[in-house]
Write a structure and sequence with these properties.
Serine Threonine Protein Phosphatase 5, Tetratricopeptide repeat; transferase; kinase; phosphoenolpyruvate-glycerone phosphotransferase activity; DhaK_L_YcgS; globular; binds adenosine-5'-diphosphate; mainly alpha; DhaL_dom_sf
Length: 201
């Protein structure tokens, strides 16, 4: 396993932006079933801004790439997912410190910190049918491999279908939120898939 530097983290977020562009309609469709039909548009706007800032002001360390991206999401996305994903990336970036390169194991530990920060901000727990249901398992599995993290996030997103939402807009629906896949868990699986893609090439 090689060391992960600025180029790797920039590639991850660029691939994430491409995946969000590609899947925006599906994310919005999921959010129209149990939310307000803006998740695709929210993330498209946010990740386009991330791509721009990384191009115009390239950060010098992996941690700075993630902190910069997180800050950008917080300032450009109005919905709940902006501050939550912003906090995820900022918390993960802070966890990486200012090393020029990091290992996958270090990234796994930092991501675990980022996920915990999302939990503190939003007050959600595992099983509440949120992005945490994909991100939590992914952070755990990243200690094993990028592919294991991708698969764990995908499984976590699918496992939100039978759950009743207890946080965010979907929770207003009560039992009617059951039977739908959570939009945020679905976009989290895309972000982790982009991470595995960045690692693969
Ligand atoms: P909004 O609900 O403000 O329109 P989005 O549609 O962009 O924002 O994002 C909705 C997603 O955000 C949900 O599918 C869920 O995964 C996630 N989410 C909402 N509230 C929380 C929370 N308190 N903790 C964790 N994730 C949350
Ligand atoms: Mg929404
Ligand atoms: Mg909204």
């Amino acid at each position: 396993g090689g060391a992960l530097g600025v180029a790797f983290f920039t590639r991850w977020l660029t691939l994430a932006a491409a995946a969000v562009d590609r899947e925006a309609d599906r994310l919005t469709e999921l959010d129209s079933a149990i939310g307000d039909a803006d998740h695709g548009a929210n993330l498209k706007r946010g990740f386009a801004a991330v791509r721009d800032v990384l191009e115009k002001e390239p950060p010098q360390t992996p941690g700075a790439v993630l902190v910069t991206a997180g800050r950008q999401l917080i300032s450009t996305v109005g919905g709940a997912s902006g501050p939550l994903y912003g906090t995820l990336l900022r918390g993960t970036g802070k966890g990486l410190g200012d090393s020029a390169t990091v290992s996958r194991e270090q990234l796994a530990a930092a991501l675990t910190e980022g996920v915990a920060a999302v939990g503190r901000l939003g007050g959600a727990h595992p099983g509440d049918k949120t992005m945490l249901d994909a991100l939590g398992p992914a952070a755990g599995a990243l200690g094993e491999s990028f592919e294991a993290a991708r698969d764990a996030a995908e499984r976590g997103a699918l496992a939100t279908v039978p759950l009743q939402a207890r946080k965010g807009r979907a929770s207003y629906l009560g039992e009617r939120s059951v039977g739908h896949q959570d939009p945020g868990a679905t976009s989290s699986a895309l972000l982790v898939a982009a991470l595995a893609e960045a690692a693969a090439g």
